[in-house]
């Protein structure tokens, strides 16, 4: 019998317990051993649960119990999650976590400890909720030189955007719903400001390219400035707005990594990913394009990934399969201002035609965008060519000085 402890009994932790209890028989067969939950750590009391006797409030009971083989961390946040996970590993316990903030920030260090101590440190649920993506990347696609990953990596924001686009629901109402459904982070600003997607693209980039990419190296924009007007203009360009995380390997060996709202073409591979679903496009030199799709958040989908890791861990208590990446370094991720994209711009100017003429001079060919009942002082267009970010900043700053107001600026990506 393998004894485990679950840290945190919120959305994910309670889902993990539920799945382990509900599917106990089949999980035992697949793990070739019985998995027994010895402790559940939480700050709250759960006296009415049939497993109320397992709750503890003192972490040291778990840390110091040599019978606990695997610790499943579902508390979230960096502290005390990092301190607890590290302490458990130093005591020789394997760790499974759903905590992307932990992996994106401390992954290289914790993977090093795992290797030194001959332990598993697994985190399938940290990216894409219930979608298998970590294991396919380091196992099934290991033959490839992966050169690009782009994905809708956050269920909450995709849910909000879908509600705004399909039902004209307000941003706040959609966010409230996502919180009630257990999709959002404890502090939902991490979802809507892009930090959650940033952590996830950091994990994927670190795993695929072998060197830690830290969240502070990644230019990150959220969806808080996206309006229903932008949604309508995007439709006229035959596109749809999605929050994307993207990493590309550049020819000089550096990475371009970014999180931002983007207009993707309706016929592209990510446009139809709606609601809480995530879609992750991986480009490999042998396989070509592969898209992973499924529920990116929520209690049971996430528990599915966590429990899958627990089973894998139990099967490998003796023979580890190491995940690994090195510490990162300054300059590894290219300054986003040196990269280029196509852009959609929405502007307010007293002389709209003058702005369109100036746009053609600055950016070359443009495609005008339209929406019903647009005021006469509003113009919107997409550039046909890619523009370097630093050049765009210069042009927009000059226009603002000349009295043109930038109401919207969104990249266009070909996925
Ligand atoms: N929700 C989702 O769909 C997904 C979440 N994740 C990740 O999984 C992790 C957990 O998320 P989620 O379950 O949604 O979060 P919740 O806030 O629902 O659950 C966290 C639980 O941990 C408890 N907790 C927090 N700190 C401590 C502590 N110091 N000691 C004991 N218990 C503690 C909380 O107790 P209390 O409430 O009393 O503070 C709460 O019960 C996060 O890292 C999240 O990013 C990953 C994929 C999907
Ligand atoms: N808040 C996250 C939860 C899963 O990672 C999301 O909405 O995607």
Automatic annotation (TrEMBL):
The active site is at 200 (proton donor). It catalyses: L-homoserine + NADP(+) = L-aspartate 4-semialdehyde + NADPH + H(+). Pfam families: Homoserine_dh (PF00742), NAD_binding_3 (PF03447). It comes from the Bacteria. L-homoserine binds at residue 185. Its EC number is 1.1.1.3. Pathway: Amino-acid biosynthesis; L-methionine biosynthesis via de novo pathway; L-homoserine from L-aspartate: step 3/3; Amino-acid biosynthesis; L-threonine biosynthesis; L-threonine from L-aspartate: step 3/5. One of its GO terms (molecular function) is NADP binding. This is Homoserine dehydrogenase. It comes from Solibaculum mannosilyticum. The lineage of its organism: Bacteria, Bacillati, Bacillota, Clostridia, Eubacteriales.
